[in-house]
Amino acid sequence: MQIQIFQDEKSLHHAVAQTLIDAVKANPKVVLGLATGSSPLETYNNMMVDHLKNGTDYSAVVTFNLDEYVGLEGTHTQSYRYFMNTSLFNGLNIPLSQTNVPDGTGDLKEVCETYEAKIAKAGGIDLQLLGIGTNGHIGFNEPGTSFDTRTHITELLQETIDGNARFFESAASVPKKAVTMGIQTIMDVKRVILIAYGSKKAAAIRDMVNGPVTESMPASILQKHQDVTLFLDEEAAALL
Ligand code: GLP
């Protein structure tokens, strides 16, 4: 794992955004894996500003998001599809038809199979952006998730529901299940960049980097991926 530590969040987001922008410039047809949560928000802002200022071209880029809540239509303001449209896609020149977020409604078994097939048809994911949950989850792969999982339906742990409640009216309105790329889906990507900042993430970062590779710390599997870069601020890196 390569680790880059930044003094402040601003320079961290700038560096992550630049990495994504460089990947698009190097390969206009790049397949990007994208994440939701608060961690990438400012990174996405930087990408939209760059697109406006410098015209970076996303017309041939294809994207796959990690996950979606079960039961939320893409028009629901807390759905990850809505988040991605409003936080990034609408600010770039990417056709929405080339952006993929798992469908949280309908025949979920079919949703999972179709999602994996679409990733394969696109030639796999070139560059995957990840955040990390305080319990070490990546995507919505909670502690205990088998390392050989592909896109599947998962039950969210109470701590994840509580952690995401700030985006909803109450913890009770947070969906209890999600569709998520599996750990094996993530391990198959060519390159991973993981973004984490703030002291709340420090223990998870320590365990991911220095702890044993174990299904009780999902992100620890990344120790076995050959191309991972962590973009951290000093607080998230404090226990390394
Ligand atoms: C959610 C998402 C994850 C994300 C995590 C951390 O659970 N499914 O992909 O990494 O939240 O969120 P935040 O970036 O807001 O700390």
From TrEMBL:
- What is the catalytic activity of this protein? alpha-D-glucosamine 6-phosphate + H2O = beta-D-fructose 6-phosphate + NH4(+)
Give the EC number.
3.5.99.6
Do you know which Pfam families this protein is assigned to?
Glucosamine_iso (PF01182)
Q: Which InterPro entries match?
A: Glc/Gal-6P_isomerase, Glucosamine6P_isomerase, Glucosamine6P_isomerase_CS, NagB/RpiA_transferase-like
What is the enzyme's main class? hydrolase
Example of a GO biological process term? carbohydrate metabolic process
Q: Is the keyword Hydrolase in the record?
A: yes
- Reading the lineage from the top rank, the first entry is Bacteria
Pathway the protein contributes to: Amino-sugar metabolism; N-acetylneuraminate degradation; D-fructose 6-phosphate from N-acetylneuraminate: step 5/5
Which GO terms of the cellular component aspect does the record hold?
cytoplasm
Q: Which SUPFAM superfamilies match?
A: NagB/RpiA/CoA transferase-like (SSF100950)
Gene3D superfamilies hit by this protein: 3.40.50.1360
Q: What keywords sit in the KW lines? A: Carbohydrate metabolism, Hydrolase
Give every Glucosamine/galactosamine-6-phosphate isomerase domain span.
11-228
GO MF entries: glucosamine-6-phosphate deaminase activity; identical protein binding
Q: Where is the active site?
A: D67, N135, H137, E142
Q: Which family does it belong to?
A: Belongs to the glucosamine/galactosamine-6-phosphate isomerase family. NagB subfamily.
Q: Which NCBIfam families match?
A: nagB
Q: What does this protein do?
A: Catalyzes the reversible isomerization-deamination of glucosamine 6-phosphate (GlcN6P) to form fructose 6-phosphate (Fru6P) and ammonium ion.
Q: What is this protein called?
A: Glucosamine-6-phosphate deaminase
- Write the lineage as a comma-separated list: Bacteria, Pseudomonadati, Bacteroidota, Cytophagia, Cytophagales
Gene name?
A: nagB
